[in-house]
Amino acid sequence: MAHLSADSYHPTGYEAAFGIPRRCDTRQGTSEVAIERLRNPKPGGKIAAAREYGIDLTLLMNRLRETPEERSRNLESVMTDVVELRKGLRKAS
Asked: Per residue in 57-68, pLDDT tens?
C-alpha cells in the first residue's frame, strides 16, 4: 500500500462533509482535533446536525483512530468476506 503524505491527501465523504481537517497525522492514524470536533460539535453545525439526526459519531471517531494500514486491512477483510458470501449465494441458487 502506498503511503499518503499530508500534502497528497484529499478529503472525501464524511471528512469533507463534516469539515474534518484536511491534514491528518497519518503516523498516528488520527487527528485529535477532528475527534474533539466530533465529541463537542459546534452548536448549529453539520456535526451537531448529524448527531441530532441519529448518526453514531463514535464509529467515525474509532475509524479516525486507526492508521491507514489498519483501515486498509479492515477493508480488505470485509471485501474477502463479501466475495465468500457471494460464492455461497451462487451455490445456494
From this structure: 998 888 888 888
In this prediction the pTM is 0.51
Phi and psi at 60, nearest 5°, equal: -65, -40
List the alpha helices (DSSP H) in the chain.
Answer: 13-17, 32-39, 46-53, 57-65, 68-92
Residue 89 lies in a domain: no
The C-alpha cell of 52 is what?
Answer: 441530532
For 31, the domain range is: 13-67
Confirm whether 2 is domain-assigned: no
Specify if 5 maps to a domain: no
pLDDT tens-digit map of 12-30: 555 666 665 544 544 454 4
